[in-house]
Amino acid sequence: MDTARVEELVRELLRELGEDPDREGLRQTPARVARSLTFLTSGHRGTIDEIVHQAVFAQPTHNMVIARDIELYSMCEHHILPFFGRAHVGYIARGRVLGISKLARLVDHFARRLQIQERLTEEVAAAVMESVGADGVGVVVEAQHLCMMMRGVEKQNSMMTTSAVLGCFRRSVATRTEFLTLVGRRHL
Ligand SMILES: Nc1nc2c(ncn2[C@@H]2O[C@H](COP(=O)(O)OP(=O)(O)OP(=O)(O)O)[C@@H](O)[C@H]2O)c(=O)[nH]1
Ligand SMILES: [Zn+2]
Predict the structure, then answer these.
(1) Average of per-residue pLDDT values in the chain
(2) pTM of the model
(3) Is 88 in the pocket of ligand 1 (CB under 6 A)?
(4) Which of 113-129 are b and which e, b meaning 16 or more Cβ less than 10 Å from the residue's Cβ?
(5) What is the residue with the minimal CA distance to atom 31 of ligand 1?
């Protein structure tokens, strides 16, 4: 990202909004926005390998592992407004397990982009499947979209739920049910 260019664009945007970008409160705003956007879109950079690094451990287990209530903040690509909530990620190991923090890091990686919730959910599922060679993966994301709350349809309490299931989570109703029970949902 060309930071100087982004700063200039933010200055122009402020002017278009009828603001004076040179008034005291706004003077540092273009630089702040550029820094903030760099962070909020950092998931466009880096690879899954770099995130997971060496944290895949041989372990002769074929059971379910779940990380529940991973908080997430992302931005909807339609309005560039935040959506935020929680992700629940589970997988069935196949002789290898992933360092548990890496599930949260993968969620952050795909959340820190311009996103839609459906794609975020699917990207996390695919990344877990690939990085640990799982037998199956389930991801549920529950989020509120500010574009639906502070503008537009102005609904304050609607929660969007999305799920992605791969491998044995897709094939086996029992596996999917075990996952949903453990993440505290009766059904999707
Ligand atoms: N499926 C999906 N839709 C989203 C997501 N984030 C925002 N949207 C929707 O994207 C749509 C964009 O619709 P448009 O009609 O093009 O835009 P708009 O006129 O601003 O729509 P309103 O939000 O209804 O005012 C809206 O229905 C949003 O609610 C998301 O993560 N997934
Ligand atoms: Zn939106």
Answers:
(1) 96
(2) 0.94
(3) no
(4) bbbbbeebbbbbbbbbb
(5) 116
